[in-house]
């Protein structure tokens, strides 16, 4: 395999355990010095280009957000030849433009997670990096995604601030009210440390957030159910093949 030929690595979130349309798949689960990946990396062809897919929570959704081995996942994708990572993140919507089934390409994030291994700079003797993170998502890749969405006729909100919470429980209404006051539009549990680690590795990295529900207190629901989350992710994900085709058609 020519590692350089991987055009895009896709990391799937809750409700996204396989990538529709990925053909001629080989699986790789390389050991890494950071430990085991969430599951196999599926490498195949999509729109005529080499694409890698990894389910962040494992293909049977067995890895909770705080236990995802973000370092191993990203290091393995890079070792297999990925340079660009499209992170698909299932989220709750806070801002009015971010209702269920919306796709959004956030441009900012706030990290509320704690106790996660959030850097590669912990190896004895490793150089401590203070990477620039003012724009946590690679602007050029965001622009490519938004242009692809436009070309494919896929509605996508441009921008928004992603709040990364610890989970695995959902938030209280008061916590969401605080996130809103902080300027957050979307809330999910896996955006960090993944984005920061990708930056440390020098990967291009951007997020397409799939809104599965109104965050606590933002809609009319008394309760957010996992079935509602899965149903809305499944409905919103029908746009992904066209989006990916258009993205991969770009040189
Ligand atoms: N909060 C946090 N993460 C989520 C949510 C939410 O409401 N919905 C899907 N992932």
Question: Would you give an account of this structure?
Answer:
- Phosphate binds at residues 14, 56-57, 190.
- Homohexamer. Dimer of a homotrimer.
- Pathway: Purine metabolism; purine nucleoside salvage.
- InterPro entries: MTAP (IPR010044), Nucleoside_phosphorylase_d (IPR000845), Nucleoside_phosphorylase_sf (IPR035994), Purine_phosphorylase-2_CS (IPR018099).
- There is one protein chain.
- With 251 residues, this protein is α/β, with parallel strands linked by helices.
- It has one domain (3-249): Rossmann fold, CATH 3.40.50.1580.
- The chain contains 6 helices and 11 strands.
- It has helices at residues 70-79, 139-152, 173-181, 194-201, 226-236, 240-249, and strands at 6-12, 23-28, 41-46, 49-55, 84-93, 103-105, 108-111, 157-158, 161-164, 186-188, 204-214.
- Strand 9, helix 3 and strand 10 (186-188) form a beta-alpha-beta unit.
- Helix 1 runs parallel beside helix 4 and helix 2 packs across helix 6.
- The mean pLDDT is 95.
- Bound molecules: hypoxanthine.
- Hypoxanthine is lined by residues 90-92, 165, 170-171, 187-189, 212-213, 215, 224, 229.
């Amino acid at each position: 395999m020519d590692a350089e030929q991987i055009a895009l690595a896709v990391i799937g979130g809750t409700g996204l355990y396989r990538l529709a349309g990925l053909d001629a798949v080989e699986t790789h689960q390389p050991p890494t010095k950071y430990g085991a990946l969430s599951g196999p990396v599926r490498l195949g062809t999509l729109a005529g280009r080499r694409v890698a897919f990894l389910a962040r929570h494992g293909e049977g959704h067995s890895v909770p957000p705080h236990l995802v081995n973000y370092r191993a996942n990203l290091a393995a994708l890079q070792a297999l030849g990925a340079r660009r990572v499209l992170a698909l993140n299932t989220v709750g919507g806070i801002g009015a433009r971010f209702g269920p089934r919306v796709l959004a390409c956030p441009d900012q994030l706030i990290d509320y997670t704690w106790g996660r291994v959030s850097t590669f700079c912990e190896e004895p003797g490793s150089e401590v990096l203070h990477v620039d993170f003012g724009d946590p998502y690679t602007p050029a890749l965001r622009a490519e995604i938004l242009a692809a969405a436009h070309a494919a006729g896929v509605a996508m909100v441009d921008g928004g601030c992603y709040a990364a919470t610890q989970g695995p429980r959902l938030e209280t209404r008061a916590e969401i009210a605080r996130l809103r006051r902080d300027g957050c539009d979307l809330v999910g549990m896996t955006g960090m440390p993944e984005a920061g680690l990708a930056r440390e590795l020098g990967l291009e990295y951007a997020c397409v957030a799939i809104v599965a529900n109104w965050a606590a207190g933002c809609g009319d629901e008394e309760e957010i159910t996992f079935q509602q989350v899965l149903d809305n992710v499944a409905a919103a994900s029908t746009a992904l093949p066209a989006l990916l085709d258009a993205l991969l058609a770009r040189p």
